[in-house]
Amino acid sequence: MPRTKQRKLAQISSELGDGDFAMDFHPRTGRPIRRSQKADSPFVDSAIAVTDEESSDDESIIAVSRHPSKKRKRSPSPPLSDDDYDFNSPSESRCESESGAIPPRPQAMPEMSLHAPTPVTCQGTQIVIKDLMVNVPLGHTGPIVLHLTPGLGGMPPPIGPPHPSSVPIGFTRPPTSTPQPPPRSQPSRKTGFLDLPAELRNEIYRLTFVAKGRFALSRPTNFSRSAAFLRTCRQVHQEASGILYGENEFFFSRRSDRHGSFWQAEWSELGFKSIRKFLKTIGPANTAMIRHLSFQFEDATPCLNPDTMSHEDRRFVHDEALISILRHLGDYAQLQTLKLNFHGRRRVEATDERFLAYLTRIKADSVDLVRYPLTRPEIVFATESKQAEPVRKSLMKTMVRKVKLYD
After folding, report:
1. Closest residue by Cα to residue 400 from 336, 350, 330
2. What rounded mean pLDDT belongs to the chain?
3. By the 8 A CB rule, do 49 and 40 touch?
4. Which of 338, 398, 405, 333 is CA-nearest to residue 368?
5. Looking at the DSSP assignment, which residues form a beta bridge with residue 383?
6. How far apart, in Å, are the Cα atoms of 197 and each of 9, 191, 202, 204, 240?
7. Residue spans with biased composition (Pro residues) (predicted)?
8. Does residue 197 sit within a domain?
9. Is the CB of residue 363 less than 8 Å from the CB of residue 326?
10. DSSP letter for each residue of 170-182
11. What is the arithmetic mean of pLDDT over 146-160?
12. Is 283 domain-assigned?
């Protein structure tokens, strides 16, 4: 469609209005030309406007200010005169003589009905005068010097610590004494258990924890003594643990009681499981405090174990719970005396290597092979410990410490 027809349609259109909406096309490429407003200057970010027609000389460059300054020019300060401030005033000379420094120059005051200098105190506080009336006698010539004291006339005193020069000359401040509160009567402190001497506390610990006989875990007849006293505080636990575990003798042996769950048809013998649980409960730290130990080794009872176990399986040298006990004692125990008794169907031979390897890990200052039973070795029918002679010599050589740990 010709361009003239487009303009005619645009002029008579009620929707587009009366504007010229004809589209121009590039004569070479045929693409429509976008008509947009051109910038006044080809350099948008520059404050200098340069056109193509102008020359590049410095004389043709015109500076254009994009943002005109709206700041009011600073008015000149009024000239200072020598009569505005008295350099020989008493306040200034006193400040300079006492502080040893040059006082600051006073600032200019706003216009007032009475032309008088603003006094400056030694602290540097400026006092603003609002309403002041001075009676000047007739015939008086010269400056008028005013000495004002801060705090008079309802004016607040300057905030800040007082300067030494603010005290008048020849005036001595009275010594200030802070009133002491009356002494409080301290309540009488009660004497507790930990206030007793250490010797008395140790005697109380021995009366509480040390038993007359052995602590037999297989037959706990004297387990009525409670160790709850150790849980009172940390200090009591540290002081009494060594007496409980170090001054008592523990007796370990097989426990011939049935043990099992209610859903099991047949219960088995408890054996050495209770001893293993006891050592795991007290932990390595308390195990190291045990000094005296008696150990009696017995085979499993046939009537208290299932029929599937053979005679060899019922020997104590194959008991896994006993092997775990020997391993724990060999790692953490620091025994002083150790008494052993082997009471099985067969003697302990050198071929029982696994059992002897864990047993010889236990060290003590003295090791004895005593008669069975250990609880009553003096009875008539007591039997000797069952072990081969090479085994006995090997145990005495490897389990006894060469250097005594205890006296």
Report:
1. 336
2. 75
3. yes
4. 338
5. 372
6. 120, 11, 9, 11, 14
7. 176-185
8. no
9. no
10. T--PPPP-PPPPP
11. 54
12. yes
- Greatest Cα-to-Cα distance within the chain, rounded to the nearest angstrom: 145
| Side chain identity, residue 53 | E
In a domain, 291, yes or no: yes
Residue 71: band (very low, low, confident or very high) from pLDDT cuts 50, 70, 90: confident
Nearest to 254 by CA among 338, 341, 366: 341
Domain count, the chain: 1
- Three-state DSSP class for residue 146: coil
Q: Is 37 helix (H, G, I), strand (E, B) or coil?
A: coil
Q: What are the start-end ranges of the H helices in 248-388? A: 273-287, 320-332, 353-359
In this structure, the chain runs to a length of: 407
**Sequence-ordered list of residues with C-beta below 8 angstroms from that of 221, at least 6 positions apart, any chain:** none
Give 126's strand partners.
120
pLDDT tens string 28-50: 888 888 776 665 555 555 555 55
Contact between residue 283 and residue 331 where contact means Cβ atoms under 8 Å apart: no
Exposed e or buried b for every residue in 48-76, given b needs 16+ CB within 10 A? eebeeeeeeeeeeeeeeeeeeeeeeeeee
Domain carrying residue 254 = 210-399
Label the pairing between strands 364-369 and 48-49.
unpaired
Q: Give the residue carrying structure tokens 């429509």.
A: 32
Helix axis angle for 234-246 and 198-209, nearest 10°, is 60
**C-alpha to C-alpha distances, 346 to 295, 305, 343, 358, nearest whole angstrom:** 18, 19, 8, 19
Q: Which residue has the tokens 């299932």?
A: 306
Given this model, what pLDDT does residue 303 score? 73
